[in-house]
TrEMBL record:
Family: Belongs to the ATPase alpha/beta chains family.
Natural source organism: Stakelama marina
Gene: fliI
EC top class, as a word: translocase
Domain AAA+ ATPase per the UniProt entry, residue ranges: 158-342
Record protein name field: Flagellum-specific ATP synthase
Keyword NAD: no
Keywords carried by this UniProt record: ATP synthesis, ATP-binding, Bacterial flagellum biogenesis, Bacterial flagellum protein export, Cell projection, Cilium, Cytoplasm, Flagellum, Hydrogen ion transport, Ion transport, Nucleotide-binding, Protein transport, Translocase, Transport
Length: 441
């Protein structure tokens, strides 16, 4: 028995076989590797030697003896014939509480200069399946965001997934920074996918601040990162949120933006030879979106929740473009931001009449719903008559409902104005709106 045990230990100490191949061709961002037949798998990690160091890559496609790989960094220095080693396993993370207050890249490596990360006891895959539908809890109670327009007209609940739809320069990032600081949660996991490099430090120092960063993990893949790193950063954001959710915490997961994740997936699909479909987006884009977004939401029994806020950068202010349309059908509500409202000077520039929370009307009381619906009706009436009023074509007294809307709509709009330092209070704001609606003529 002792001899058998010794032999078992000796065999266990032997390093496993190492598979390696060589670079056959480099076509744009795509690196073709030969010699890994039967060993390479979709998602396998590859380490490629180059004149400027090692390049990490991932197998994204297979064609007979050729593995199609995309790099996580600039493949400069890679040549035909370069050695490509197949790493063991697929990308995994070992997050822990020590990750709070840290900034990492799409592979979970620290980029904030604060030293190595604490490793948790359990490794989890970066890309994981959503929880089974039948085993999930229901969406929880309403949570306060501090943004008056949302707390009154499109409230957010624990475990809900909400989309922020806006064109460029409408204030989407500013609104997300307000939600990051003010929304009630245990942990915040923030994914900055394809963001401008200069905005990362501004977001961390000005928008999050020391207090917000202390309860947050920030995942960054800037716009100059390869497509694979941008996609991986989105998966890493959800993987870390799942770690804290499984530990029983209520997580706020923000991602800016889902559109850039879709663009990264489009680049990957096109590089692998997928046919372009709607507006150049490949079929896998529309398959990956629900797999990503469904990972947020309520957990199972004994677990916490992931409340998801996902921004969508609508192309040319077209809110019916393919990504916006697909995401809107997956999430539990959508917040539409309007350039026209921003040009009028009302920020956050949320279009209340086009924004929807699918948690309504249950998450408001009957009294709160009555106030919300009365205010929305006034704003709708005013929007219908606004042009006539400005042109002087409407005569006061012609319609009492229009007269009331003209009198109260500007006051409602003024109530909804906020800056980054002006945090709302849902109970007080609803009371103030109710008193405003009862103001006599």
């Amino acid at each position: 028995m002792q001899t058998l045990a010794s032999a078992t230990r000796a065999i266990g100490a032997i390093a496993p076989d190492r598979h390696f191949g060589k670079v056959a061709a480099v076509r744009g961002a795509l690196i073709e590797v030969e010699g890994l037949l039967g060993a390479a798998r979709i998602g396998s990690q590859i380490v490629i030697g180059s004149d400027e160091g090692l390049v990490d890559a991932e197998v994204t496609g297979l064609d007979r003896d050729v593995a199609h790989c995309l790099p996580f960094s600039d493949p400069r220095g890679v040549a035909a014939g370069s050695r490509a080693d197949l790493a063991a396993g697929q990308s995994r993370l070992r997050p822990a509480d020590g990750w709070l207050g840290r900034v990492v890249d799409g592979l979970g490596r620290p980029i904030d200069g604060k030293g190595p990360l604490q490793l948790g006891p359990e490794a989890r895959p970066i890309k994981a399946d959503p929880p089974a539908a039948a085993s999930r809890n229901r969406v929880g109670a309403k949570i306060e965001t501090g943004v008056r327009a949302l707390d009154i007209f499109a409230p957010l609940c624990k475990g809900q997934r909400l989309g922020l739809f806006a064109g460029s320069g409408v204030g989407k990032s500013t609104l997300m920074s307000m939600l990051t600081r003010w929304t009630d949660c245990d942990v915040a996991v923030i994914g900055l996918i394809g963001e401008r490099g200069r905005e990362v430090q501004e977001f961390i120092e000005d928008d999050l601040g020391p207090e917000g960063l202390a309860r947050s993990v920030v995942v960054v893949a800037t716009s100059d990162s390869p497509a694979l790193m941008r996609r991986q950063a989105a998966w890493t954001t959800l993987a870390m949120a799942e770690h804290f959710r499984d530990a029983g915490r209520d997580v706020l997961c923000l991602m800016d933006s889902v559109t850039r994740f879709a663009m990264a997936q489009r680049e990957i699909g096109l590089a692998n030879g997928e046919p372009p479909a709607t507006k150049g987006y490949t079929p896998t884009v529309f398959a990956e979106l629900p797999r990503l977004l469904e990972r947020a939401g309520p957990g199972g029994p004994g677990q916490g929740s992931i409340t998801g806020l996902f921004s969508v950068l609508v192309d040319g202010d077209d809110h019916d473009e393919p990504i916006a349309d697909a995401v809107r059908g997956i999430l539990d509500g959508h917040i539409v931001m309007s350039r026209k409202i921003g040009e009028r000077g009302r920020y956050p520039a949320i279009d209340l009449l086009k924004s929807v929370s699918r948690m309504l009307p249950e998450c408001h009381s009957d009294a709160e719903n009555a106030v919300r619906m009365n205010a929305a009706a006034l704003l709708s009436t005013y929007a219908d008559m606004e042009e006539l009023v400005r042109l002087g074509a409407y005569k006061a007294g012609s319609d009492p409902a229009v007269d009331t809307a003209i009198r109260l709509a500007p006051a409602i709009e003024n109530l909804l104005k906020q800056t980054k330092k002006d945090r709302g209070n849902a109970e007080q704001d609803l009371a103030q709106l109710a008193a405003l609606l009862e103001t006599p003529a």
